[in-house]
Design a protein that fits this description.
This is Nucleolar protein 10. Residues 565-576, 686-709 have a biased composition (Basic and acidic residues). Keywords: Nucleus, Repeat, WD repeat. It comes from Drosophila rubida. Residues 476-503 form the NUC153 domain. With 725 residues, the protein is an alpha+beta fold. The chain has 16 helices and 34 strands. The longest helix has 49 residues, at 551-599. The strands form nine sheets. A five-stranded antiparallel β-sheet has the order 1-2-29-28-27, with no helix packed on it. The chain is extended, with a radius of gyration of 43 Å. Helix 9 (495-529) runs antiparallel to helix 11.
């Protein structure tokens, strides 16, 4: 049993638990169940409540004594008797079942609509008769007063099969191209069908005529997928639920064309089935991904059940909180929601069981395991366990047994508990000790600068609607640890922060610029207020001839110059930050090289001359292996960053390889392999270009000659002579 709580409503999954293989004997199954603690708590409400492959549809008999389900493979129907909580019988079909109806109080009369256009009528002993309909069927309903079976499917006709006379009657012709669903009102027996065009047509079986048409698609504008009607269900004589292919459920009063309520599943999946719970004023709506329980008055969600595979069908037990789900899996799921009603009479022990479970805590799957990262594993000195059964790889770390983790932690940090105890005692003492002068500060202890920025943004929001509706991070419980735990403090010495610092400084400057503009706007407003007053005459010639610049032009020029200055300062700060980071990396590399050099031996006998190895001296071959290690350093190490090398580094890899290869072709060895080298080069570039042109021409000539040898001449082909007249 698995307990899930949604909106303070507990949902009990009575089918949850680990399944035992079918090939085990009953004795082995019982022993396996007794060994596992979780299996001992598992409840098997109905024995063998499953299908070999997939369950397609499920129903409850009208007398609530039998549960009937169809599935594959092979196509079959199973009947379970609730009084014995076990299977009663099982029958197989020639083809898969699309849907079926129970037309008697028990299992003695059933009608199955199959995917190959066949309709099978079953009695208590088995199949009674089998017939075929003209088009593929999708849904069917039984009309008790006239003993007519209404079948809808691909096509515009509603087929009528009279079970009393055993013959087809004149079908009803609708205005739709295809029909998806149908339902019969339980009180006045009105027939309604859902069409592909998004309409609901109502037919009166007494007059054999269409009495009304309801356009549902017009009530759902702006939907990406066309809202064809895929599910219909009557609550009572006047209220009806309509499910669409776009994932909407509309509740109607059949006396009005306006929906009482519209509910969106937000999955963009077709609604497969609807059901009502009148005692709790709740609606059950099923799509492929979820089963949702919601209030029919307000549309507020009560609870939901998510699928691990795909849901096909469900059925509820009237006046109870239990329902069954058919899915694309072996198991048929059984759920019990106490808020929707009590348990059925045949399993009344569930009420007492759920009351006991509410007082217990549900164990988490990972309670006995601790998640550790690779860094924490190295700190514990347990890297050698990687790849063994003691560590289970998961995402960026590993799961390990919590007892092993505690033991390793105690060995690595033996005084960790003492430190933790002292910190706790000190925190309690500080909380009890109150200073005489209490200064109330709204700033947290950690990340004060970030808190100040957040408080400033909340106090002065921008004009955009998104910025005004942003929640306050200081009051959000999800980010509480960021301002309390020192592990989340911003490290300003980190390389990432130093590279990001110029960007943050520029943002701060832009905010300061905005504040300055606000002040200037206020100042301009004051100047406009003073325009009514008389101004003193000026002796300036520029004012006389109109050469004086306006305030707007001056402000625009100042703004442009300030933008250029800000951009230059920003580029300068970015270059300086990258330079500092690069210098720090070089210093760290030099320190690492110095450490490696210090670790190597410095004695005169620790190095062997390379010339001795070349000349084949026997003394060098007799030296031990640990003294053969030597390190060569370039003489021009300090002159490595010449102007030429810097220019070579700036060009692309292709040009660099071409230059280096040409330089290697021009270098020749003189004398021994360890001796001097000489380089030949030409100063005149014209001669070099002429040489390259001649070389290119020779290559093309060679290519043409090779092509002539490969291409077959046309003379060898025999062509037919055609006489044109």
């Amino acid at each position: 049993m698995f307990v899930n709580e949604v909106n303070d409503v507990k949902i009990y999954n009575l089918s949850a638990g680990k399944s035992v293989p079918d090939w085990l004997t009953d004795r082995r199954k019982r022993s396996q169940l007794m060994k596992k603690g979780d299996s001992r708590r598992q409840i098997e409400l109905i024995q063998d409540f499953d299908m070999p492959g997939v369950c397609t549809s499920i129903r409850m008999s009208p007398d609530q004594q039998y549960i009937l389900a169809t599935g594959t493979y092979k196509p079959r129907v199973k009947c379970f008797e609730v009084s014995n909580l076990s299977i009663k019988f099982e029958r197989c079909f020639d083809s898969e079942v699309t849907t079926f109806e129970v037309i008697s109080d028990d299992y003695s009369k059933m009608v199955f609509l199959q995917c190959d256009r066949y309709v099978e009528i079953h009695a208590a002993h088995g199949r009674h008769y089998r017939l075929r309909i003209p088009r593929f069927g999708r849904d069917m309903k039984y009309h008790k007063p006239s003993c007519d079976m209404y079948i809808v499917g691909v096509g515009r006709d509603i087929y009528r099969l009279n079970l009393e006379r055993g013959q087809f009657l004149q079908p009803y012709e609708t205005d739709a191209s295809c029909l998806y669903a149908c339902d019969v009102n339980p009180e006045h027996h009105l027939l309604v069908v859902g069409t592909k065009e998004g309409t609901v047509e109502a037919w009166d079986p007494r007059t054999k005529q269409r009495c009304a048409t309801l356009d549902v698609a017009m009530k759902l504008p702006g939907v990406k997928e066309f809202p064809s009607v895929t599910a219909l269900k009557f609550r009572n004589g006047l209220q009806m639920g309509v499910g669409t292919a776009s994932g909407h459920v509309l509740l109607y009063d059949i006396r009005s064309r306006q929906p009482l309520l519209t509910k969106n599943h937000l999955n963009n999946l077709p609604i497969k089935r609807l059901a009502f719970n009148p005692s709790q004023n709740a609606v059950y709506s099923l799509d492929e991904a979820t089963l949702k329980l919601w209030d029919e008055q307000t549309g507020k969600q009560i609870a939901y059940v998510e699928s691990t595979t795909s849901f096909n069908d469900f059925c509820t037990i009237p006046d109870s909180g239990m329902f069954f789900l058919a899915q694309e899996d072996v198991k048929m799921l059984t759920y019990y929601v106490p808020a929707m009603g009590p348990a059925p009479r045949w399993c009344s022990f569930l009420d007492n069981l759920t009351e006991e479970i509410e007082s217990e805590m549900v164990d988490n799957v990972y309670d006995d395991y601790q998640f550790v990262t690779h860094k924490e594993l190295a700190e514990l000195g347990m890297e050698h366990l990687i790849g063994s059964n003691l560590l289970k790889g998961y995402m960026h770390g590993y799961f390990m047994n919590v007892r092993l983790y505690n033991k390793a932690k105690a060995v690595v940090e033996p005084f960790a508990f003492d430190r933790f105890r002292k910190e706790k005692v000190r925190a309690e003492i500080e909380s009890e000790r109150k200073s005489r002068l209490q200064i109330e500060s709204k700033l947290p202890k950690v990340n004060k600068e970030l808190a100040l920025k957040i408080m400033d943004e909340q106090a002065n929001p921008s004009n955009s609607a998104k910025q005004r509706n942003v929640p306050n991070l200081l009051q959000d419980s999800r980010f509480k640890a960021m301002f309390e735990n020192t592990d989340f403090a911003v490290n300003k010495d980190a390389e990432e922060y130093r590279l990001l610092a110029p960007v943050l400084n520029r943002l701060d400057k832009s905010k300061a610029k905005e504040l300055k503009q606000r002040v200037e706007v206020a100042h301009v407003a004051e100047l406009h207020a003073d325009e009514a007053q008389k101004r003193e005459e000026s002796d300036n010639d520029e004012d006389l001839f109109g050469f004086e610049k306006s305030e707007a032009e001056e402000s625009s020029g100042d703004e442009a110059s300030s933008d250029d200055d800000d951009r230059k300062e920003y580029v300068k700060e970015m270059k300086q930050a990258y330079k500092q980071v690069k210098q720090q990396r070089e210093e760290e590399e030099e320190e690492a090289e110095d450490q490696e050099e210090n670790e190597e031996p410095d004695g005169p006998d620790d190095y062997v001359s390379p010339l001795a190895n070349v000349n084949g001296n026997s003394s060098s071959s007799k030296t031990p292996a640990n003294k053969l290690n030597f390190k060569m350093t370039a003489i021009d190490k300090d002159l490595g960053n010449t102007e030429l090398q810097r220019r070579i580094k700036q060009v692309s890899l292709q040009d660099r390889v071409r230059v280096m290869s040409s330089m290697e072709d021009q270098v020749t060895n003189v004398g021994r392999s360890i001796g001097n080298r000489q380089m030949t080069f030409e100063i005149n570039r014209e001669k070099k270009s002429q040489h390259m042109a001649k070389k290119r021409e020779a290559e093309l000539k060679k290519h043409r000659e090779e092509r002539r040898g490969i291409v077959r001449p046309i003379k060898s082909l025999k062509l037919k002579k055609v006489n044109f007249k």
